[in-house]
Design goal:
Strand content of chain B: 5-15%
Radius of gyration of chain A: 30 Å
Radius of gyration of chain B: 21 Å
Distance between the termini of chain A: 72 Å
Number of helices of chain A: 15
Helix content of chain B: 25-40%
Low-confidence stretches of chain B: none
Low-confidence stretches of chain A: none
Helix content of chain A: 25-40%
Strand order of the largest sheet of chain A: 2-6-7-10-1-11-12-13-14
Largest sheet of chain A: 9 strands, mixed
CATH architecture of the domain at 6-255 and 437-474 in chain B: Alpha-Beta Complex
Structural class of chain B: alpha/beta
Mean pLDDT of chain A: 91
Shape of chain B: globular
Oligomer: heterodimer
Structural class of chain A: alpha+beta
CATH class of the domain at 6-255 and 437-474 in chain B: Alpha Beta
Strand order of the largest sheet of chain B: 1-3-2-4-6-5-10-11-9-7-8
Mean pLDDT of chain B: 96
Largest interface: A-B, 28 and 42 residues
Number of strands of chain A: 16
Strand content of chain A: 15-25%
CATH superfamily of the domain at 6-255 and 437-474 in chain B: Amidase signature (AS) domain
Largest sheet of chain B: 11 strands, mixed
Chain lengths: 477, 488
């Protein structure tokens, strides 16, 4: 009998505000340790939190984008635990009444269909600082620059049934967050971190005992950790054992997870209402105004690209992966409006392919949308063939020269002169009498051979349409 | 002169009859003479006090005087000040210097006040007798074998003995009103949200409120007027709080038309008979002044102490987590590991009463107990608040004893925390309901002062200032303790 995997995900996403959640300190990443702190985020005696309303608005925007309920009154709570990088000894979070509840995301599944993943809640909280234990002097160092940086915790329902579904959900969520502009969501900077709750069961049975994989910050590690955990749990159960509820830490070097703390050792966070902050009240007008300012979401953009530019769903999907891609594509279309599909092909297949091979991305592209449009213009006016254009693009990746300059320098200008093409064709016919005889004897398939020979002889510059037309004429004899 | 009221000192300063430097010198001398006996102050920097006084006199020479120009005011050791240590009378904050002033300290400075020093208190304001201070007990000027009340006992004793004409205290469950009562002076706890809590070391955030401790009602009004008002950096400080005429409210000399509620739950078995008689007599005096005394009931009063001793320790257990030995304050020597550092630093730094409250609060918030304790206590709190709302449908203000007993002997209750907790039985409900309350002297029992407590609806400090001023004008209970004399 098979096993069913059950996965629920908690994503901690840094909200991209200029200042921290409860004080005026900068949230800029990478500053010298402890330079972006003040008495509030250092937890000094008598200091009080004041809520950053930009963080509130961005959380509401995220809630609206996942079709969730926005609670017009929510509350902050204190989550109590001791750790040296948690200055107050408690984290201000939302426990009993979060600002966002009951949302969902639709993710593509294997059959090309969609699957709905429930999102239980999004609540606001503050980040802790960072402890660094790898010091040479055998002491621990604490950097409190991150202390008090605003986070959204996005908690899904246990709706995913495979690591692939979990990754599809995370990628969709990550893309949405980026489109909304509510977070840099840079995983390497820890701006988008994931805890995965994993259990297995026989189909139809109640949920099994779950374990929690903590704090993973790459899609690859998350998939590896879930896959590892599924195998581990199934082995335990099939060997007659029982899964122990615990938190586990993924070791991306050893490719294995290890127990962090068991249920018995789990913290009792002793949540209670934060008396320093009154209940968070937002008005329906405020929510409506945020909804009115909602940017175009990935799904809407994909549909618009298909409808407005006639793109295949595949191309539309590729070009709406990020706002940067979509914007680049639209600037290319603006510069080469005659053929949006050609724009899509050349951007998605040729340019991104070359960038990918070079290990760089669009932001580092040596070819701007304007330069690529100039090349596409030459295809449009039949100055060069598509094949020759690929050679030109190769050269453009290496130099700042214009498409026209490269075409001229390489002699790739397309030959559309009937006389010149006829001369090439006649030379090819003369060199291949047997094939001419064969064609004339009814072997139509030989047409391809002649086209190839003529294109080769012209080094790709012959206008293919004209070559075809003249070959038919001249081979008749 | 030392027993002059703050408002009279202001009149003399404004008339040029004295100077800020002269006043500072006068009170510094009295502190030097009497503080060893009372231990009311835990930190004094005479040179700094004189420097502030000189600056005030210089300001006065060039500008119109500000509201508290040149007036000496002492503050409880719970207020963060950039000058000098702020230690909350706890070993865990021994040597701590705050890099900022509390909002109310800024307000006092802006009003031209001269800050005299830090007064003694129960450690982290947890106590009713100022015996839990890490810096030694404070004594009552009326009988130095007795406690001055608490937790703002240092401020109360300092004002009663005229070591300062006025002081700031904080009141979480009665910590301004109860010591004011025990030391025979006036103390006002404003409405919760009236005064910013920023920079005041937190005990129980939903209950703490700063206020004045003074010789007269008007002096309390003067100081509250200077320290109250919106602070954008305290989210619980109400930005659109109703404004009242602080000084004008103190001009009342009668109580015509005033309906005073007398709650039966505040006249209980077990309270001191002399205290009871003093309060009854005070209410008769109020009736003579034109007030109508109406018997009322605040039915959930009995549950107030229990609810308070769940809510306040719960909040305190989190508020005191920051004293962990990591960034400031006490850290134990040579910790073996992190847990050892936490446990030993906190064990060495906190006194037993503070530990008791942290443990009580931690327990009340624990998984499995939260509903039975914290949630239930919050329900009681709601009922207590409603009791007052209902009562204020019938009456304008409520009058009660501030404390069921007068000053007890040092050490008498230290081994019996439950009895100690009952010292606040009449003050706690006011904090739970967030209301303003004032205590003023209304008599003596065997030479020890008795306090009359006034309670008003939220934001109606004007009503209690008016009633208390009229009572004060008609009586003569502000007296000078023997051994601390001087001309009046």
């Amino acid at each position: 009998m098979s096993w069913e995997v059950v996965i629920g995900l908690e994503v901690h996403c840094q909200i991209n505000t200029n200042t921290k959640a409860f004080c005026g300190c900068s949230t800029e990443f990478g500053a010298e340790p402890n330079t972006q702190t003040c008495p509030v985020c250092l937890g000094m005696p008598g200091q009080l939190p004041v809520l950053n309303t930009v963080a509130v608005d961005k959380t509401i925007l995220t809630g609206l984008a996942i079709n969730a309920t926005i609670n017009l009154e929510s509350k902050f709570d204190r989550k109590n635990y001791f750790y040296p990088d948690l200055p107050k000894g408690y984290q201000i979070s939302q426990f009993a009444v979060p600002i966002v509840e009951h949302g969902y995301l639709d993710i593509p599944n294997k059959d090309g269909d969609e699957k709905r993943i429930g999102i239980t809640r999004i609540h606001m909280e503050e980040d802790a600082g960072k402890s660094m234990h790898e010091g040479l002097d055998a002491v621990s160092h604490i950097d409190l620059n991150r202390s008090g940086v605003p986070l959204m915790e996005i908690v899904s329902e246990p709706d995913m049934r495979s690591a692939d579904e979990a990754i599809a959900y995370l990628k969709q969520l990550h893309q949405l967050i980026r489109f909304l502009g509510v977070s840099g969501a840079d995983m390497e900077k820890g701006q988008f971190r994931c805890d995965a709750n994993v259990s297995v069961r026989r189909p139809g049975e109640p949920f099994g005992t779950r374990t929690e994989m903590k704090n993973m910050n790459s899609f690859r590690f998350i998939k590896q950790a879930i896959d590892f955990e599924v195998v581990r749990q199934i082995e335990i159960i099939e060997d007659g054992g029982a899964v122990v509820q615990e938190s586990r830490l993924w070791d991306s070097v050893k490719n294995e997870s290890r127990s962090m703390r068991s249920k018995e050792e789990a913290h009792d966070y002793r949540y209670f209402p934060e008396p320093d902050l009154p209940p968070l009240r937002v008005s329906q007008q405020q929510v409506d105004a945020i909804r009115a300012g909602m940017p175009e979401l990935p799904g809407q953009l994909r549909q618009r690209f298909e409808a407005e530019y006639g793109l295949s769903s595949y191309d539309a999907d590729v070009l709406t992966q990020t706002l940067e891609l979509a914007a680049w594509y639209e600037s290319l279309v603006a510069a080469h409006p005659v053929d949006p599909k050609r724009c899509a092909n050349w951007m998605a297949n040729e340019l991104l392919g070359r960038l990918n091979e070079a290990g760089s991305d669009l932001s580092e592209s040596p070819v701007s949308a304007k330069r690529l449009a100039e090349l596409l213009d030459r295809i449009e006016d039949s100055s060069i063939s598509g094949n020759a254009a690929k050679t030109v693009l190769d050269a453009m990746m290496e130099s700042a020269d214009s498409a026209d300059a490269i075409i001229a320098a390489k002699g790739l200008k397309q030959v559309s002169d009937t006389g010149a093409i006829d001369a090439i064709i006649l030379a090819v016919m003369e060199a291949n009498p047997a094939q001419v005889e064969g064609y004339r004897g009814g072997k139509d398939k030989l047409m391809g051979f002649f086209v190839g020979q003529v294109m080769k002889a012209s080094r790709g510059t012959a206008n293919p349409g004209l070559v075809n037309q003249r070959l038919v004429e001249l081979l008749k004899g | 002169m030392p027993f002059t009221t703050l408002s009279e000192l202001k009149t003399r300063l404004d008339a040029g009859e004295t100077t800020a430097v002269a006043l500072a010198g006068l009170y510094l001398d009295r502190i030097a003479e009497h503080n060893d006996n009372l231990n009311a102050f835990v930190h004094i920097d005479p040179a700094h006090v004189l420097a502030q006084a000189e600056a005030s006199d210089a300001y006065r020479a060039k500008h119109a005087p500000r509201a508290l120009e040149g007036l000496p005011i002492a503050v409880k050791d719970i207020f963060c000040t950039q000058d000098g240590p702020t230690q909350c009378c706890s070993n865990i904050l021994k040597g701590f210097h705050a890099p900022y002033d509390a909002h109310v300290i800024t307000r006092l400075k802006e009003a031209g006040a001269v800050l005299v020093g830090k007064t003694n208190m129960d450690e982290f304001a947890m106590g009713s007798s100022t015996e839990t201070s890490a810096f030694g007990v404070c004594r009552n000027p009326w009988d130095t074998d007795r406690i001055p009340g608490g937790s703002s006992g240092g401020s109360a004793a300092a004002v009663a003995a005229a070591l300062t004409p006025a002081a700031l205290g904080t009141d979480t469950g009665g910590s301004i009103r109860q010591p004011a009562s025990i030391c025979g002076i006036t103390g006002l706890k404003p409405t919760y949200g009236r005064v910013s809590r920023r920079g005041i070391i937190a005990f129980a955030s939903s209950l703490d409120q700063a206020g004045p401790m003074t010789r007269t009602v008007k002096d309390s009004a003067m100081i509250t007027a200077a320290i109250c008002g919106h602070d954008s950096m305290d989210s619980t400080c109400v930005s659109d709080a109703p404004v009242i005429d602080w000084l004008g409210s103190c001009d009342k000399t009668d109580m015509k038309g005033l309906k005073i509620g007398k709650p039966k739950e505040y006249f209980v078995d077990g309270m001191d008979a002399g205290v009871r008689a003093s309060i009854e007599e005070a209410l008769r005096r109020c009736a003579e002044l034109g007030a109508e005394i109406i018997d009322i009931s605040l039915p959930h009063t009995e549950a107030a102490v229990a609810a308070y001793y769940v809510i306040a320790p719960s909040e305190a257990s989190a508020n005191l987590s920051r004293y962990d030995g990591v960034r400031f304050g006490q850290r134990c020597k040579d910790p073996e590991d992190l847990l050892d550092m936490y446990t030993r630093s906190r064990d060495e730094g906190f006194g037993s009463e503070v530990k008791r409250r942290i443990l009580t609060g931690t327990f009340a918030l624990s998984s499995g107990y939260y509903d039975a304790y914290y949630i239930k206590a919050q329900r009681v709190r709601t009922k207590i608040r409603q009791d007052f709302i209902d009562a204020f449908e019938q009456v304008d203000v409520i009058a009660t004893p501030t404390s069921p007993i007068t000053a007890f002997k040092l050490g008498e209750k230290t081994d019996d925390p439950l009895t100690m907790y009952l010292s606040d039985i009449f003050t706690i409900a006011v904090n739970l309901a967030g209301l303003p309350g004032l205590s003023q002297p209304c008599g003596f029992v065997e030479g020890l002062p008795v306090g009359l407590q006034w309670i008003a609806p939220a934001w109606r400090e004007d009503l209690i200032l008016g009633a208390a001023s009229a009572y004060e004008a008609a009586t003569d209970w502000l007296q000078i303790p023997a051994g601390f004399g001087g001309e009046a």
